[in-house]
Amino acid sequence: MIGVVLCGGQSSRMGSDKGLLNTNGIAWAQMAIGKLSSLQIPVVLCVNKLQYGIYKATFSSATIITDDDSLTLNGPLLGVMTAHHQHPMEHLFVLACDMSLMESSLLADLYNCSLQNDGYDGFVFINEDAVEPLCAIYCANGLTAIAEMHRKGLLKRHSMKYMIENLHIFFLPVTAIQKKYFTNFNTHADLNGL
Question: Smallest Cα–Cα separation from 79: which of 128, 131, 19?
Fold first, then answer.
């Protein structure tokens, strides 16, 4: 298993690269790396081509994956499938860089769940009725099936939620106390109170 920190969004609503925003002087991308690394797995950053130079100045180029535009996908699914194509035999523990409140203990819960349950294509938190696709584990066999659907033109929507609908997923419920850890920060107004 490898950890994949998704940093490749356009950050258009935020107005600046979310992975490079910081809390107490630590970039959100670095915070996500630290949380996934606590599981004793290798971690890579997935960025778009325009971000590569900026991230290379801060992070080791060996840990940076650049979106593969030849996949003709977009959004987070592009980052996930790019990581899968580079590491086709690995399960991917995906974490969005803007989930800066995420706790390592929740990641450990999901990781342990994946070790204890065989036969699933992925392990995803469910928050009431909403899936949390950007803090999830996607198994290599499931991602291979999605890649094949895409190759055959059968992937009708290029969204993480649609991908999940086409996989055999183990859903782990989010408790009321845990809800805050799944907050995504998309605008500067969202940052108030941090």
Answer: 19
Given a cut of 50, is residue 14 above it in pLDDT? Answer: no
What residues make up the domain containing 184?
2-189
- Residue 168: inside a domain, yes or no? yes
pTM here is: 0.91
What would the two tokens of residue 53 be?
Answer: 């130079």
- The enclosing domain of 7 has a CATH number of 3.90.550.10
* DSSP-assigned letters across all residues of 28-67: HHHHHHHHHHTTT--EEEEE-TTTHHHHHTTS-GGGEEE-
CA-based Rg of the chain, rounded to a whole angstrom? 16
- Residue whose pair of structure tokens reads 């797995």 in the numeric block: 41
Max avg pLDDT among 8-12, 62-66, 111-115, 125-129: 111-115
Give the C-alpha separation, 57 to 118, whole Å: 40
